[in-house]
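Go through this chain for my students:
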Amino acid sequence: MSLMIFRPIINLRRSLAAKLILTVGLTLLITISTWAYFNINYQENKLMQNIVAGTDRLTNTIKLGTHYAMMSNSRADINQIITNIGKQEEIETIRIFNKDGQIKYSNQPSEVDQITNIKAEACDICHKTDPPPSQLELTERIRIFDSSKGYRLLGIIGPICNEPGCATDNCHVHPQGKKILGALDVVISLADTDKEILTAGKGIIGLAAIVFLVTSTIIFLFVLRFVNQPIRKLIDGTRMIARGGDPGKVDVDQDDEMGQLATAINQMGMEIGEKQAELNKQKDEYQTLFEQVPCLITVQDKNFKLLRYNDEFAENFDPEWGDYCYHAYKGRNEKCVNCPVEKTFEDGQSHHGEESGLNKDGSEAHWIFRTTPIKNDQGEIIAAMEMSLNITQRKQLEKKLQKSEKKYHEIFNNMPNPVFVLDNDTLEIIDCNDSVPAVYGYTKDEVITKSFLYLFSEEERDRYAVLIKNSTMINQVKQLNHQRRPLTVNIRISPAEYPGKKVLLVTTSDITKRLETEQQLIQAGKMATVGEMATGIAHELNQPLSVIKTASSFFIQKINKREPIEDDILFKMLGKIDINVDRAAKIINHMRQFARKSDMDLEKVQLNEVLQNAFEIFSQQLKLRGIKVVWDIEKDLPRINADAGRLEQVFINLLLNARDAIEEKWGSREDGQMDKRIVLKTKFDRPFVVCKVCDTGKGVDRSIADKIFDPFFTTKEVGKGTGLGLSISYGIIKDCGGSIRVADHKPGGACFILKFAGSEKSHGK
């Protein structure tokens, strides 16, 4: 009984073929399993990478699309953009959080104004540290979680950074120290993606199983053929020799001891037996490979009639004997156009490509094929072999990816502002949206492959090449359109991922017409200011004219009396005339320059110099009105980026307002209790250059402090003010990157405080 139990083990130990099959089978199983595992992981990772990259592009596109609306505080436009994009089937939610974790915008209206716990999964990405980081890598902003409906969701959160426009805009101002204003959270469904991954995994596992089974079968047949059978043949041959029979059927072609023994036995047989055995071996090998290889194989004659086909072909198409390939493959009644088999018969060459057709169940299928000629001993082509590999699954994945790319391109092309995709290193234009031709006049074909720097003048290209690579926003940039005419734009730059490379997403906003309107408004304000200054200028010119008049009268009297004029007196009086003529000419030229229309030209200027130039126009009239000017100037201030002429306009407006406020409060009183003062103060309060223009006038009521910079708002009597001065001043200060506000002056009156970012240290005045 015990011997019967251990007999299979004993037989295994005695069987070389069994040992070889077991060893090779286990090795093959481990290899195929490993391949299937890594292939499934690769397909899953590749698909997720594409989904993540596409979602990130969608996030950047939403941020770009809502940027202008956010800067103008247009909630309706932001809601419209989020609602339209949120209608896409795969998008679950689109939320915009403010810095307090409150949902301000969402494609699900019920969520708006809800406060999110910072420990929630979307917020905890940034709030793991205190303070939250200002930048996160894409991998850090991703989260994958399960929905309440049982499928997975992919979320990408992106920070909304503070910018100069946000820090200076009066309607939704944010402190410059606040780097992050909020976050954009986009959540998409992974239900379809998970289905694709599952389907792909099943396909790979099925293919691996088929390969294992086919390969195992081939190995099994090989072992049986080249190990077990030779052994049996050797045994039978030796037994036949022992019985005196013909050992010609022994066929073993090996170099080991078994082969040597077979050679010795075959040498005793007939040569014809050896050749017949070799022929039989080759035939068996061919048949095994032909039937078991995991692809479609057919052999066709010149009329495209199927001579042979393997089991894989029979299972997929269920052909009939004598059928034609075009009928079996595609159900056609005539040969296909551009038939590769026909080409093989014509030129005797192999051909390859892709084919599409239907499976026997009616489903669409795709293959890659290769044809090979079969020749006889005379070199004539007697048949053609066609091998096809099913790639339907790969094609389906490609179509889904193309569909996804199409959606994102539709969003990209429907952006109202021009959007460029630039190479991160060379700034070459890789792609652009449909708004580019409308703004710049170039077609897409004309722009793509050109450098983005081509849109700038040659002398400025090097400077902007550095700025574009190192900035996120560049305001009031001069570019050239198709006719090489200038236009003024604001540029926003954002790094992004593009298939195969890192790129820059560049969005431009054409502000040419807006600047022209602002320029007209500023010029109107200048002319209004000139009108208000007319009386003061008359006083300023009266002093040098009085000196000249006195001197001329003195000379006339001397000449009429024929009295000589002493040289020292003549020299002294002519010197005074020369000085006062120069002063009058300087005042007139200054006024002409002030009234001239000019474009905004930012340069590094010394604030004290601009303030002094503005004061010189009013020095005499302020003195005549009894207004004392107190200077508190810090020397060696850092220079600021500004337009000196327009900044002077700001100070002139402030001095005029201070003069009028003092006059309105004190009138013509002459008692010793009057305090008619204008205080001009500058200092460097790192990192800002601060200027204060204060007066002891009637002050600004707190109830109107918020309206004082609005266009056409004035507290002056009818006919004495346009309401444009402070509004224009506010715009000029903002264009120079500064800020202006009004505060109470402690002795009484108002104090206007201006702040600018210092750029470099000045030396001297």
The CA atoms of residues 530 and 591 lie 8 Å apart. The longest strand covers residues 486-498.
